[in-house]
Design a protein that fits this description.
Length: 46
């Protein structure tokens, strides 16, 4: 599998996230709302 350059191959959490979550479409309304809220708060912190 070709992985993005940001994936730290020494960290299994990054590898799992890249392989199982990154770029995978989600249609779950609760999950999408959670991500929207988390991203909004994160933008407010910076």
């Amino acid at each position: 599998m070709n992985r993005c350059k940001w994936v730290n191959l020494n960290n299994p959490i990054y590898v799992k996230y890249h392989d199982e979550e990154w770029g995978v479409p989600s249609y779950d309304d609760k999950y999408l709302f959670e991500m929207l809220i988390l991203e909004s708060f994160q933008a407010g912190l910076s």
